[in-house]
């Protein structure tokens, strides 16, 4: 790949008839410099641009085209200074783009690829769609990479590879966490027993627990004498209390029957009356 040596020029028409005084003279000098440039008379063109700058030191058009003549004369240090001044005093993005692009060309000629990359990058910030600038920017980056020692290049490659792996690992972890959250939500929605279990838990929590009272009653029962301890009846049998109650009821019934019998006997015995003598 070779650099595209295209330089951006700024050409103007003569406006002598419309401008008077110093401004008219500046424009005329720039116009003369442009004509000399088209004819290939770069030395004469440089003189014309310098005449314009002597009257207007911050005239960006004169600075820009003077930088181009310095570049064509292989005066790269002077050219980079002119382009730096041009972008400083430029009033539009397009003028800044031209200045930075030409500055990148200067650094490419000097094989200062890092500076060339930065210059082209600044040019693209002001005009991202220029094909010439994008081409030279890519070339400068490639030359900068090839300029690095093999061990430094290897370190950069390992660093880039590690950053890529870390990024992929982070994305995988995020995806795994999202999948887990989604599975848990689906499980909760599909579980019909969860709500019932929660209700049973809430019910149990709402009932008071008297474990202490129950233990105390059991302890008191164990401390009573054997004859006072209540024995729980077996299934199908009467408790001792129930047996005692039945016996008492039977005795009372038997007593009532006996009292009735005795009463009849007394009523049936004849009473011996006394004779009247």
CATH class of the domain at 21-147: Mainly Alpha
The CATH topology of the domain at 21-147: Serine Threonine Protein Phosphatase 5, Tetratricopeptide repeat
The biggest sheet, with number of strands, parallel, antiparallel or mixed sense and barrel status, is:
none
Proportion in β-strands: under 5%
Question: What is the count of DSSP helices, taking H or I runs of 4+ residues?
Answer: 11
CATH architecture of the domain at 21-147: Alpha Horseshoe
Cα distance spanning the termini: 179 Å
Write out the CATH superfamily name of the domain at 21-147.
Answer: Tetratricopeptide repeat domain
Instruction: Tell me how many strands there are.
Output: 0
Mean pLDDT: 77
**What structural class results from the helix and strand content?**
mainly alpha
The best one-word shape is: rod-shaped
SSE string, helix = H, strand = E? HHHHHHHHHHH
Uncertain regions: pLDDT < 50 for 5+ in a row?
13-18, 269-277
How helix-rich are the residues, as a percent range?
A: over 70%
Gyration radius from CA atoms, angstroms? 58 Å
Question: How would you describe this protein?
Answer:
It is a single chain. By secondary structure, the protein is mainly α. The chain has a domain at 21-147: Alpha Horseshoe (Serine Threonine Protein Phosphatase 5, Tetratricopeptide repeat), CATH 1.25.40.10. Helix content is 74%, strand content 0%. α1 (21-38) runs parallel beside α3. The longest helix has 41 residues, at 150-190. The radius of gyration is 58 Å and the shape is rod-shaped. Residues 13-18 and 269-277 have low confidence and may be disordered.
